[in-house]
Design a protein that fits this description.
Layout lengths: L8 H7 L2 H24 L1 E2 L2 E2 L3 H22 L9 H7 L19 H18 L18 E4 L15 E6 L12 E6 L5 E5 L3 E4 L7 H10 L14 E2 L2 E2 L3 E6 L9 E4 L2 H10 L7 E6 L2 E9 L9 E5 L6 H4 L2 H14 L3 E4 L2 E4 L14 E2 L11 E6 L3 E3 L1 H9 L9 E9 L5 E6 L1 H23 L4
Parallel strand pairs: 14-15
Antiparallel strand pairs: 1-2, 3-4, 3-7, 4-5, 5-6, 8-9, 10-11, 10-12, 12-13, 13-14, 15-16, 17-20, 18-19, 18-20, 20-21
Length: 458
């Protein structure tokens, strides 16, 4: 079956994927016409033959049929539709495009409602897991049973057995993980290892819904309690387990199931990383026990680039246990000295690699003046993205932070509102890393000022 492309035409242009959008859009139009024809051909005195939806699903699969129905039902009210089936059909987001009307099903409202109900019944018969089976948002994924979103499965793989995965490690396991952070997981059904983005999962399964077959597999995947096998427990330091550092290399992060190689020496990992083509989204990371985080990724700087460039990943700076570990810092510095990266990945943006970790003389004594008190990121007035131009923070957030775009923006410059130490307004033109340092200094100054106000008078 033709792949379903879920982004808008504009998004496809930005990502250099217009060909995929065109092919998918043609399939959407054909699917809508086929459903319209099936409804017309299988209607008898206001009733639809019971196998009508099953025929459409056999022709097009659940993903495209639901997508076409969602697009159709955005233009119609819910009157006459069964509420649960209507809610399910509308649960898929269809990005607005000027020609979306071309793949709407044209049929009598009553018959269309019957077709939607039939499709929903077929879906329920699969026994798929949904958001109602999750424990709630904001969960840590480490050593938890996870529910993979059904739209990440090929139509022939639609089954609840293919949805349940066991989260091992990865920066995406953290409840504070950003978009694009990946999760190393094993499929409960057969132990197949794969790497997914955190957003590919609905969430953590509430174990009251755990099937018996999955419970048996879970016993095999979960490690035994420390010391149960008679071996000495690892030495603990604070809340962490001191384990030997290892390195891993991922061949292409765009794939669901990846070839992940592990190494005990950084030099061997570097050799394996460099042997891979730059046309794939390869990565090199560090692992300690069950925790893992990328240090280098090969990323395209622009959507049209066919090859990527080595980019240092600064995600480890957001985790106290990682950034306070001397071996991690030494490894990151060693990679930087060997690869000489021009750019870094920080807070879901590609930015020029900083030359130093302190502000230049011209910015010393300067602080940010935020629009929202205490939130110094709101001091930014304009964000300059290479290949795009100047964007307001709201537009930048809409394009790159709220959307599910796989491309990271290359931010080269930020205009911000600032002040000097006396509170006089200053317009600031800074690099992204300088803006990060100003946020940090402004936060420290705010905390210091608050503590001084709380001191009792003598």
């Amino acid at each position: 079956m033709t792949e379903l492309y879920r982004f808008s035409r504009q998004g496809a242009l930005q990502e250099g994927e217009l060909d995929r959008w065109i092919v998918s859009r043609q399939a959407n139009v054909s699917c809508a016409r086929n459903i319209s024809g099936l409804i017309d051909a299988h209607a008898r005195q206001g009733q639809l033959d019971p196998d009508t939806a099953r025929t459409a699903l056999k022709n097009w699969g659940f993903l495209r049929v639901q997508y076409v129905l969602a697009n159709t039902l955005t233009a119609t009210g819910g009157l006459g539709f069964e509420p649960d089936s209507l809610r399910w059909a509308r649960s898929v987001f269809v990005p607005p495009d000027k020609d979306n009307h071309r793949f709407r099903v044209k049929a009598d409202r009553t018959l269309l409602a019957q077709f939607v109900q039939q499709t929903y019944v077929e879906y329920l018969a699969l026994g798929m897991f949904g958001p109602e089976h999750c424990v709630g948002p904001g969960q840590d994924f480490t050593k938890k049973v996870l529910i993979l979103r059904s739209d990440k499965l090929k139509d022939e793989c639609w089954s609840p057995q293919n949805q349940l995965w066991y989260g091992h490690r990865g920066s995406g396991c953290s409840s504070t993980a950003a978009k694009g952070e990946h999760v190393f997981a094993a499929r409960l059904k057969d132990g197949t290892q794969a790497c997914w983005n955190r957003t590919d999962f609905m969430g953590v399964l509430d174990e009251q819904y755990l099937p018996d077959w999955a419970a048996e597999r879970l016993v095999e995947l979960r490690p035994p309690p420390a010391g149960a096998d008679g071996r000495p427990r690892p030495r603990r330091h604070g809340n962490e387990v001191r384990a030997m550092l290892q390195f891993y290399v991922i061949d292409d992060m765009r794939l669901g199931r990846l070839d992940i190689s592990h190494f005990s020496q950084l030099a061997d990992a570097m050799l394996a990383y460099r042997s891979l083509s730059s046309s794939g989204l390869k990565a090199l990371g560090i692992q300690r026990g069950d925790d893992a985080i990328d240090l280098v990724q090969c990323l395209p700087l622009f959507p049209s680039d066919r090859e990527g460039e080595d980019v240092m990943v600064l995600r480890f700076l957001e985790f106290p246990l990682w950034k306070s570990e001397p071996q991690i810092i030494e490894t990151a510095q060693g990679l930087a000295s060997r690869l000489h990266p021009r750019y870094c990945l920080y807070r879901q943006c590609i930015i020029p690699a900083p030359e130093q970790d302190k502000l230049p003389r011209a910015l010393r004594g300067r602080y940010l003046w935020p629009d929202e008190p205490g939130n110094f990121y709101t001091a930014a007035q304009w964000v300059y993205v290479a290949g795009v131009g100047r964007l307001s923070p709201a537009e930048f957030k809409r394009r790159y932070m709220d959307a599910s775009s796989a491309h990271y923006p290359l931010v080269v410059h930020i205009s911000a509102c600032g002040m000097d130490s006396r509170g006089n307004y200053k317009s600031l033109q800074v690099s992204p890393w300088e803006f990060h340092l100003l946020v940090k200094l402004s936060q420290e100054r705010l905390i210091q000022n608050k503590s001084q106000k709380r001191r009792p008078l003598k």
